[in-house]
Amino acid sequence: TRPRIVVSRWIPGDAVALLREAGEVWLPEPDRALPTAELHDAVAGADAAVITLGEHAGAAFARAAGPQLTVVANVAVGHDNIDVPALAERGITVTNTPGVLTDATADLAFGLLLSVTRRLGEGERLLRSRTPWSFHLGFMLGSGLQGKTLGIVGLGQIGRAVAARARAFGMSIVYTGRRRAPADVETGLDATYLPHEELLRTADVVSLHCPLTPETRHLIDATALEAMKPTAVLVNTTRGPVVDETALAAALRDGTIAGAGLDVFEHEPEVHPGLLELDNVALAPHLGSATVETRTAMATLAARNVRAVLAGEPPLTEVTP
Ligand code: GLV
Ligand code: GLV
């Protein structure tokens, strides 16, 4: 019998076609977010599951699927929605989609940075409100990036891609993280390692590119925000809970830091009401990887991972506990 492949939500057609070559594919039609109970019903009897970051896969998910479940492919690079040890314990392979979303996410981080430093959202709101305005030299002044210091938290693939863009903007690069990058990476980006505290104190822009783990939850809390320059801007394109959003809203309101560009939120899809009232915050609804090209590549990679595991081959991009 052909393997049963459950896809939790809409994915681009090419990827579905790839999966159909490997088994019987089920997906919710029309597309919608399945409540947990329905997801668990749907996954019963599945050999493979393709999920997105809106769905949680852990012990209960594996039990609902049954012992034949061999692979869970996340269509995301972040995998905080998966209890990897719980699945590994049951012999289930977990895969993610690194690499293919690096540039799209780095582009969006820069978009948010420019949006907040050049007041693009605020300017657009002004125009759409039909408020009279005219060009003058003191009108809506922002701040430039040239000569400023970008502090990257987590110099992985996306952090490096953000650093490369920052170099083109004339910024200097410092970074922090669990471990130092290889010497050739540091040299190539002209990036200087700093301890976390020192990075917060010296960076003009702090951009977060670490995964969400128990260690990074609320990494940016009131104390961290207090350590940052009052002129500094925070950019978050990783996961909302890396930032204490209540503390951030207070810091932005009180001028503890100057601005923020946020693509992700602590209680997604909710956004802290304090942030919605502030003009010094640029907001995006988790669009980091949201290009046609990137989403197609992510889904295709997930499908290829499923096909590999079902064929008894090593997955392309496995997440190990
Ligand atoms: C998106 O947020 C991802 O982790 O791919
Ligand atoms: C600005 O619009 C300029 O022409 O300098």
From TrEMBL:
Domain of life, source organism: Bacteria
Name this polypeptide is given: D-glycerate dehydrogenase
Annotated keywords: NAD, Oxidoreductase
InterPro entries reported in the protein's UniProt record: D-isomer_2-hydroxyacid_DH (IPR050223), D-isomer_2_OHA_DH_cat_dom (IPR006139), D-isomer_DH_CS (IPR029753), D-isomer_DH_NAD-bd (IPR006140), NAD(P)-bd_dom_sf (IPR036291)
Residues in D-isomer specific 2-hydroxyacid dehydrogenase NAD-binding domain copies: 110-288
Domain annotation D-isomer specific 2-hydroxyacid dehydrogenase catalytic: ranges: 9-319
Pfam family, one: 2-Hacid_dh
Family: Belongs to the D-isomer specific 2-hydroxyacid dehydrogenase family.
